[in-house]
Write a structure and sequence with these properties.
YegS/DAGK_C, 15-stranded mixed beta sheet, 19 strands, nucleotide-binding, elongated, Tumour Suppressor Smad4, 9 helices, Rossmann fold, alpha+beta
Length: 310
Amino acid sequence: MSHEDESGGVHDRWLVLNPTSGTATHVDRVRSLAAERGYRIEQTEGPGHAVELAEAAVEADADLVAAAGGDGTLNEVLRGLDAADGLDDVTLGVVPTGTENLFATNIDVTGIERAFAVLDTGERRRIDIGVAGETPFVMSCVAGLTAEASIATSSELKERFGSLAFAITGVQQAADFDGLHIDVSAVSKGEETRWAGEALGALVGNVRRFAKQGGQANVEDGLFEVVVIEQMPTSKAVAEAAAHRVFARDTEHVHRFQASQLTVDALDGEPINFSIDGEPHRDDHLVLHTRPKALQVCVGPDYEADPTDE
């Protein structure tokens, strides 16, 4: 049964609130808007707590769970819903209060007030999720693009080069970066694509813009968008990034393909540093696959699943 508070109210809508996300100035406004609508409000107390709260929401028969925070909070809520086998029965909502809010932007949810309006009356759509090993994700799984590179990358560079900006900055920031020695094997509609060698990075994206302005995956087609960036001198990386960004095509050192499942192996036996929706993960053999339309989300009026619809 759904949770009942002391006044006898039934809560079939939960809000998982991260009080420290972004500038941390959102708490009172989010609480007020959620309370007006009868949400059960649960505040996180640290990393991993949103996973537990989402699991509790499923056990309490909630039919909507909203994540108020950034992309990290959203991923924790997704993991909790999945762990409790709640994806078939629970709709996921997003109240963006983080720094980047990439996923919220992808589904046309910008701002707190707009988010609650979408939760109230917005369209519900079923979208794909990815799984890396046993970890579900909505945005991306990337390798070779470190947290330091992400922090150091300027907004201007991200805007100009999209996902490749992280690779450019990573090379500029790390003098001892010697590339990833990887073997990528991908399958799409029965056809196999394979790439092996030294790379600056490999990006596996599920949503349209899985790295700031970079990406362009269809989130409802059951396929990842995979980008492999070969190791190259920094000056050449800038030129390659510009060509790839402007013409949206493969270049000499940038390879792009789609896949419903893929494997990333380390060729030198050293574990690879991955980032799964921003969360670190180390592995020398990682298997990824899509789960088509496994997640129901509340989307804004201008949401488009397919990049070609722009």
